[in-house]
Amino acid sequence: MSPPPRLSEAEDRQRRAATRNGWLLSAPALVLLFIAASGPLLIVLVYSFLTPGKYGDVSWEFSTSGWVGILFSRDIFDDTLKLADAHLTIFWRSVKLSLLTTAITFALGFPTAWFIATRPPKARALWLFLITIPFWTNLLIRTFAITEIIRNEGILNKVLLAIGVIAAPLRIMNTDTAVLIGMAYVYLPLMVLPLFAAIDRFDMRLLEAGYDLYASRMQVLRHVILPIVRPGIVAGSILVFVPSLGAYVTPRVLGGGKNMMIGNFIELQFGQGRNWPLGAALSIALLIVVMLAMLIYVRAATKEDTPHG
Amino acid sequence: MADRSFEVSRLPGFAFTAVTVFLALYLPIFTLVFFSFNAGSVLSVWQGWSLRWYVEAWQNDVVKGAAMRSLLIAASASAIATTLATMAAIGTTRRRRFRGQTAIYAFINQPLMVPEIVTAVALLIFFGVIKSWTGYQGLGYLILAHSAFCVPFAYLPIRARLEGMDLSLETAAADLYASPWQAFRHVTLPLLAPGIAAGAMLAFVISLDDVVITEFVKSAGQDTLPTYMLGQLRRTLTPEVNAISTALLVLTVLLLTAFFLVNRKKD
Lengths: 309, 267
Description:
The complex is a heterodimer of chains A (309) and B (267).
Chain A: H1 7-47, E1 50-52, E2 58-62, H2 65-71, E3 72-74, E4 81-83, H3 85-117, H4 121-136, H5 139-150, H6 155-162, H7 176-200, H8 205-212, H9 217-228, H10 230-245, H11 249-254, H12 262-270, H13 276-303
Antiparallel strand pairs in A: 1-2, 3-4
Helix pairs in contact in A: 1-13, 2-13, 3-7, 3-10, 4-7, 5-7, 7-10, 8-9, 10-13, 12-13
Chain B: H1 14-35, H2 52-59, H3 61-93, H4 101-108, H5 110-113, H6 116-134, H7 140-163, H8 168-175, H9 180-209, H10 212-217, H11 225-232, H12 239-264
Helix pairs in contact in B: 2-12, 3-7, 3-9, 7-9, 8-9, 9-12
Transmembrane segments (chain B): 12-37, 71-91, 112-133, 139-158, 187-208, 243-262
Family (chain B): Belongs to the binding-protein-dependent transport system permease family. CysTW subfamily.
Membrane topology (chain B): Multi-pass membrane protein
């Protein structure tokens, strides 16, 4: 009679079975995601190193023109490279509007999240539901909705004209301001929800301690509240900044054709621009910037796990 | 210090800002809904209540086609994504931790991290090649693309539900000589049902809302409601778009309310 398998051996077998079953059960989802989400990104990378085809698409010759084209354009007459001002304008607009959107949503979102978190439990669920509805509502519909407000004949102008603040309607549509208002409007819930989650865990007794030590409200806010809810601030900022940077619908609807952001610029290369390698290179570049932002987020979030002071 | 009756959690101006934010959040949506019932065709001039634009949208074959396509894609993508996400969630929670678990988790959530426009471009290129190879131009591409980006939205609530569930019930079933399949079918699945329903609803809403990826993947004549509405922007905007938006909005709110009711029961 053979001796019973040692415990470690049995455990080892169990562990291997667990690994196998885990992978087997996850496999269909992973395959689907590889085919229709992650895998095609590799093709984009390949395309970014090819030569533009005459009528769109690519011809299969290696070229770095896509990547060079991000920053430089070739002079049609003497073929020299020079900085492409138009591209830089678009990048600067994207970064500027994304940062401003993040700042505005934080300035408005923090008091909102604080307000929700300090309601009694029943009311809190309702307020939270009210912030969640816009979050799940179609982004395009919300963009249309904000259009109703800021159009030349929109509510905002009607009210301002009626109370005599302005003499002629403000022309907001098709400007950077319109895009900024629109993005702040559609991405606000993305800021409020993680801030709420952080504030919800905040121990309000710390405030009493602060006030007992004669701290003013501003001091309590700066030195007690903000440092502790920092993970929520970082999460909210990333959640707003990343989709702002890649925004496509909002700048297209509110910015008109002229006030493009990176997302629209990428689309242009696959449409009228007929420069697929440039579009591919821009996509990969955008992806890299977003991944770096995520990395900063993960680092900031894990650093926060260590106990305070 | 007798009169120290102030609320510690109150911060000056916060409540006012919050209420203003809520008003600003809902005013545009209510305006849009309100004007969808406008009798006149000028967007911002109120000419009395009417269901005219709902009737016109309903009688517009292009809109009806887009609506049916939206629902078909959302239902298929939600079914596929929820099935695969349920399997993956069970694979990554109901057992001891195993090697690669974190990698699976990251891979499943990947669509949440990549900007939509980048995925859209990638699928435009990839499906373009497949389309020219196979000649197949059908809705399959849209269903496939939607299924993929819906997976994390279905996965997260299912996984959350599984993590809150007690493993001892399945152990008890196994002790009573239930096969793994019987234990799953009669113990795990019924307990997991609310999570699956929640995941399916979120996936449905997310698919229904998608604009960017659909815009890049669709072949000619495959407009969904959102891409149809985006296309209308080039022409003069009619209140018809408001009516369609309102209909979609109502559907979303109904699904979300159902989601919250389903989720609340677990407490």
